[in-house]
Every structure is written in structure tokens, then in C-alpha cells.
Amino acid sequence: MKESGRKQGAAPPCAACKLLRRRCAQDCVFAPYFPADEPQKFANVHKVFGASNVNKMLQELPVHQRGDAVSSMVYEANARVRDPVYGCVGAISSLQQQIDALQTQLAMAQAEVVHLRVRQTASFSHHGFGPGSPSNSGSPSSKLMGSQAKPIFDMDMVVDHASFGESMWSC
Ligand SMILES: [Zn+2]
């Protein structure tokens, strides 16, 4: 703010140069990615990677890749500040755990679907409908759902009758 009066002083120094207390040259490598109004963005990157390393990495990259590299470094730096031990690996492994848990749930739900279909097929043949149904591999599920889902559904409705009541009669 107090650096006015220089020739190029019209624009404020970028967040990096401001933090490093140096003059922000016109071709400053940081300026396009660390605007003055986001000081925290550079502060974390500087703390984790060091300004000269960031400078070096950006210089080694073609200009069109620098924006992505900066986003990546900012993400990693913020994660490292939040979690000094694991950094973004912490986020990755917690997401991986969620994936594992959800895949387990999915497998259990799919097993239950298979189980219900087998039960439906059993009651299907028990009632004597559609003699050749097991060999009809087209799409048995929709046919079964349509005609023979009732017995199981009725049982469920008895169990949570209370929660069903309102929505059943409101329409
Ligand atoms: Zn600068």
C-alpha cells in the first residue's frame, strides 16, 4: 500500500512479492497466479514449498501448464497446513475408505436384490404362473416386479405401517 510512487506502481505488487517484500517486476512469474487480493494462497505455498522452489518449478514449466501446477501446489499446501502429517494423502485415504465402505454396501444391496429375485421366482413358480420363466432371460426383473412384488411388499407394509399411512392416503 505504501509502495506507490514507482513507475509501474499503478498496479499493486502480487501476493508473492508483497510477502517477500520485493519489487513486483512486470514479468513476475508469480503475478498471474497469486493476485494481491488472495494473500493466503501464496502464504501457504511459501510455507510448504518455499518461494524459490515454487519459482523454479514455474520457470521449468510451459506457460500453459503453470496455472494447473499452481492449483495443485495450492491444494497440497493447504492440505499440508491442515494436516501436517498426511497432507492431501489424508484426504485421499479417507475418500478411499469411503469408497470401500460404499462398495461393501453396494455389494450387500446387490446380494439382497439377487436374494429377493430368487424368492420371487420361487413364489412365481409356486403359484403356477408362467411355466418356462427361468429360461426367459430377457428381463425378468421388471416382469416380476410388476406382477409378483406384492406378497413381499405387503409384509413390509405391515412392519412400517405408520410411516406408510400418510403418503398412502394423501394421493
Ligand atoms: Zn510479483
From TrEMBL:
It holds the Pfam family LOB. It comes from the Eukaryota. Residues 125-142 have a biased composition (Low complexity). Residues 12-113 form the LOB domain. Residues 125-146 are annotated as: Disordered. InterPro entries: LOB. GO terms for cellular component: nucleus. Residues 92-119 form a coiled coil. GO terms for biological process: cytokinin-activated signaling pathway; regulation of DNA-templated transcription. Keywords: Coiled coil. Belongs to the LOB domain-containing protein family. This is LOB domain-containing protein 4 isoform X1. It comes from Gossypium hirsutum (Upland cotton).
